[in-house]
Amino acid sequence: xxxxxxxxxxxxxxxxxxxxxxxxxxxxxxxxxxxxxxxxxxxxxxxxxxxxxxxxxxxxxxxxxxxxxxxxxxxxxxxxxxxxxxxxxxxxxxxxxxxxx
Length: 101
What we know:
By secondary structure, this protein is an alpha+beta fold. The chain is built from 2 helices and 6 strands; from the N terminus they run E-E-E-E-H-E-E-H. Strands 1, 2, 3, 4, 5 and 6 form a 6-stranded mixed beta sheet that branches.
């Protein structure tokens, strides 16, 4: 499995994601090229989808919401997130986001 969507940075990891808002449920769909595709139940208005994305990633990776930061793409479907958690690795994030692989 290519991991261009997830890379190590000092003190944590960086995730490249593409979101689809207004979904029936929030879930990881899979990989689309070099991004992780995620469906969000939240609407893409007034930052609700961004907040939902941060909560979802924090929950799946078992880190506080405050450690997840959207660094690029606040108003785009494609976003870059950084998760500040020294215990997180590319491998542990992959296992958490894709538990069946």
